[in-house]
UniProtKB/TrEMBL annotation:
One of its GO terms (molecular function) is hydrolase activity. The keyword Hydrolase applies. This is Alpha/beta hydrolase. It holds the Pfam family BD-FAE. InterPro entries: AB_hydrolase_fold (IPR029058), BD-FAE-like_dom (IPR049492), GDXG_lipolytic_enzyme (IPR050300). Keywords: Hydrolase.
Length: 287
């Protein structure tokens, strides 16, 4: 374990008069420091970059990884794909400015929980997609490609949830995706549901994934995570799946020392190896 310094409220973009900011949890280790951008949960309509600071973010940073916890625009004021534009802008900002804080910028990771896990996964599976890249920030010359994704108990298949029967919607509540996608006809919502589903974006080019999910999750059934892991594995991508017995959605057990250690070890292993390879073959850093 190492000491951690908090550098709060770093602006990474501005949009419609709103300032989008990051909090940096920086471990006291020799740089460049492996870095992950963290995305909070909250059904896309609530939550903040300071959530779980003491129980999750600082403990992770203390194990030797810089954590940039990002705010993104929330529903109902902002609807999809605004949130993905924000995430990709945060990645580009980190590539452009991370070295100023001693961060490794060649290889970057995303770590999301619940709604944030969906955003991390979709952003990581769609590098340089014109429809999702957005034009936020002043660092549009930078790449939004990431080299590792930690996905904690997030939804990945909106096609299934968008077509639930009333009974199914009651058993597995609530349909947050309706707020995420905004107003529209059933056909329009169905099209957005497929476009925004990480499950339908997997390919052999996907970065390595770590998926943690509780087998008692009623908000996002574990079958969702199992299908996502299977799809990644079948297409040739690297995916590690960890099922937490007895754990519900956002269960306190996710913040256990073991699960934090598993996540940090996965991120460090993939980011350090990727950064070494990229530095060897790329004449410019952060591009």
């Amino acid at each position: 374990m190492t000491n951690v310094t908090l550098i709060p409220d770093i602006t990474y973009a501005k949009v419609d008069g709103k300032v989008l900011q990051l909090d940096l949890y920086l471990p006291d280790i020799k740089g460049p420091v492996p870095t992950v951008i963290y995305l909070h949960g909250g059904g896309w309509g609530r939550g903040d970059k300071a959530d779980n600071a003491e129980t999750r973010l600082k403990p992770a940073a203390a194990q030797g990884i810089a954590v940039l916890s990002a705010n993104y625009r929330l529903t109902p004021a902002a609807v999809y794909p605004a949130q993905i534009h924000d995430v990709k802008a945060a990645v580009r900002w980190t590539r452009a400015h991370g070295a100023e804080y001693g961060l490794e910028t060649d290889a970057l990771g995303l770590w999301g929980v619940s709604a944030g896990a969906m955003l991390a996964s979709l952003a990581g599976l769609t590098p340089h997609d014109p429809a999702l890249e957005g034009i936020l920030g002043e660092d549009r010359d930078q790449s939004s490609l990431v080299q590792a994704i930690a996905h904690w108990f997030g939804p990945t298949d909106f096609v299934t949830t968008a077509t639930r029967t009333p009974l199914e919607a009651h058993i597995v509540p609530p349909p947050f995706e309706r707020a995420l996608f905004g107003p529209g006809s059933d056909d329009e919502i169905a099209a957005k549901a497929r476009e925004a589903s990480p499950l339908y974006r997997v390919s052999a080019k996907a970065p390595p994934f770590l998926i943690l999910h509780g087998d008692r999750d009623r908000m996002v059934p574990i079958a969702d995570a199992e299908a996502f892991h299977t799809a990644l594995s079948r297409c040739g991508a690297h995916s590690t799946f960890v099922s937490l017995g007895g754990a519900g959605h956002e269960d306190p057990v996710f913040n256990s020392a073991l699960n934090i250690a598993i996540t940090v070890a996965f991120l460090r292993a993939n980011l350090v190896s990727s950064a070494t390879s990229l530095a060897t073959f790329s004449p410019q850093r952060g591009r």
